[in-house]
Amino acid sequence: MAEERLNAIGKLLARQGILIAFVVFMIGFALLNDRFLAVDNVLGVVRSSAILGVMALGVTFVVISGNLDLSVGSMMSFSTIVVLDLHDKIGPELAIPAMFAMTMALGGFIGVLVGYFKLNSLIVTLGMLSAIHGLTLTYSGGKNMDIADKEGTWFSVIGQGSVLGVPVPIVVFLGLACLLAILLAKTPFGRKVYAVGGNGVAATFSGIRRPRVVLMTYLISSFCVAMAGLLQASRSMGSQNTVGQGLELEVLAAIILGGASLLGGSGTVFKTLIGVLILGFIQNGLLLVGLEFYVQYVVTWLIIILAVWLDIAAKRGRLLSPIA
Amino acid sequence: MTTSNRTKTIKRGAIWGFIVLELIFFSVAGRFLSVSQTQFMDLDNMLLLLKQSAPIGIIALGMTVIMINGNIDLSVGAIFALCAIVMLDSQTWPIFAGLGELGVIPFAWGMALLTGMVLGAINGLIVWKTGVDAFIVTLGAMLGYRGLVFMYNGEQPTFLLNWTLVDMIESSLLGLEFPAIAFIVLTFLIWFLMTKTVHGRNAYAVGDNREAAVNAGIRVGPHMLWNFVLIGFLTALSSIVFYSASGSVNPNDGELYELWAITAVVLGGTKLTGGSGSVINTFGGVIAIQLLRKGLGHIGADTETVNLVIGLILIAVLFLDRQLNVKGKGELRT
ipTM of this predicted complex? Predict the structure, then answer.
């Protein structure tokens, strides 16, 4: 019992570590620039983080179950291109569900390969990164997609509209975050995801059907990717074939920053949310302070290394690695 | 025992079998489908292929060492771009002025190689000292180094054409141009390093079982550091080979190179978990990918299908590897 409480306190501290960093950043930037905490700026940041954030929420499930998903970037390009193309062909009402079905079919394919055939998720999704990119280019013929009649459709509401003054992407992002947080923290399925990632063999012995859980995590991930693609498509009403390129690694960066372990078994939706927001606010803060946008890459690098290092150091009780 | 030996041989030869299959397929299919008159199996075509595969190939050699070591390096694309910028830009530095077009070359190359080694060393040092997984360290570095690339010259491309350098790179020996020769020689050198030296043996030992390697007295930290320096060095070399002739680098250059290099290494049969793999088979993996690109172009397929096919082949290779592996090795059947 005592051990359990210690564990709980440790977990609490780990969670607060990233929160403290977040608060320090916010205060620092707020002192440097008084526009930083203005409502429209904050809403702007959350809104522009929403697309990355929605994807990160889904990939969190995959990472907790001990796998990786490097294909989300090119999958997002795929769903963006597909929904834009189908919008003009069969109308938005049919295009959206069709796009979700196609994207989730891809996610399901990965899930079957990783779950049922037990292939290494890094390589499978690396292969799918390339394959889906090819699929997207073949589908679009390499051309950019545009919605022909940008005024005469309600499609733009999803990416550009707002509800009670709050932009729809933020509503979608936070709504999805709440939903997935409950799914992960409060349901038997969520517990199974942790079990599979924490110790797959033990999970199997305790009667959890591991392949099915893994498949589900990839379905959730691809659902989120489809949602992100929808937001992207509706926001810009047109797109290149490479719109999602490189996002897979930014998504992972956000999740790692949130404190999830890539080995699986740890991480929460809330932490990922914080990771996404930290990335977003750092980017915005550095711009407001007057630095070039690419400085954020260097800062993100340092923060990721520091965050993970301190996390590991706290767990092993010493700062430097014991490896000679 | 015999069956496991046979599977081993099959697995070791698989990539070469695959290359032969590709050659046959594209030669035959090329007869019927090709738009051009030239044969696919033309000698010049094959030499060109070797030259074109050099940039990714040289990086993939370093990636093989890193992956045998049980690590991974996602930052090579950014290192590639930064080294190129340093190499081109350093030729205009005032300290090197007065050396002339020929005299400046060794210094420019030296600066590029130094840059690559330092960036690799930073990764290696972080992996060693902090104990953070190489995947995370180099994922961060991929962003960070790319940031440095942009900070160097903004979003502008960096140009510099040194005609002496261009002539040098494009000169050829026995029909092989400089990049192809560099690729072949380096493959041999890294093969020698991995199979005939203590360092190579240690690399397999560390990748196979890090704990055991520590207990056996291998200084694992510095060992991994050297490997990161090596991949930085090779990436810089790859950058030199590529940009000496082209003379222009965009800040986005080298993006996704890490993924291509990893794909080539995995096609060559190196395990992500470390401890096994072969430099010669990586060479095969690089050639196989380049053959596929060229071959699909030859039979008139769109360039976009190349990505699709390579992705599916990567998954198929993994699938076959799974089937060939002896089952039940401490593994749970579920």
Answer: 0.81
